[in-house]
Amino acid sequence: MPEEKNQEALPEKKVLGLVESVTIIGSKATVEAKALIDSGASRSSVDMRVAAKAGLGPIVSTSRVKCRSDGKGWNRRAIVKGDLVLHGVRKTVRFALTDRSEMAYPVLVGRDIIHPDFVIDVGKSHASRRIGDEREPQPK
Fold it and tell me: Is 2 part of a structural domain of the chain?
């Protein structure tokens, strides 16, 4: 019974898996990319190369972000504005610019996008969209 009650309370929310396709719209171009959905991240971030290709900007502010690799435990990142489309919902977002070339996905979708339009269902992801699939060797 509690599950039915929860579903009734959230009929307008769209369900996300752990990895989703997104569209980033900037002044130069529209870029399709895969995004990691991360409810632990308060702000969304985008790879600098994707931001440059789309023409996101100008820089509207900076933000202090936790960063384990930095000796101080944090670093400053530039914040740019752009539009993002996720499951047909278009939002104007402030992205933190970062180098995500070492990461599996060029976009990270944080709580600033997830709330209030989406919920995350970790069971929705399947083998072809599982985190790490792109780095795992494929069976021969």
Answer: no
Task: Print the domain residue range for 69.
Answer: 13-124
Provide the residue type at 2 as one letter.
P
Give the separation between CA 15 and CA 37, rounded to whole angstroms.
Answer: 11
Query: Is 7 domain-assigned?
Result: no
- This prediction's pTM: 0.78
Q: In total, how many domains does the chain have?
A: 1
**CATH number for the domain that contains residue 100:** 2.40.70.10
Please check whether residue 6 lies inside any domain of the structure.
no
pLDDT at 122: 82
Mean pLDDT by 10 residues, the chain (140 residues): 53 88 96 95 95 94 79 86 95 94 94 92 63 50
Residue 60: count other Cβ atoms within 10 Å of its Cβ.
10
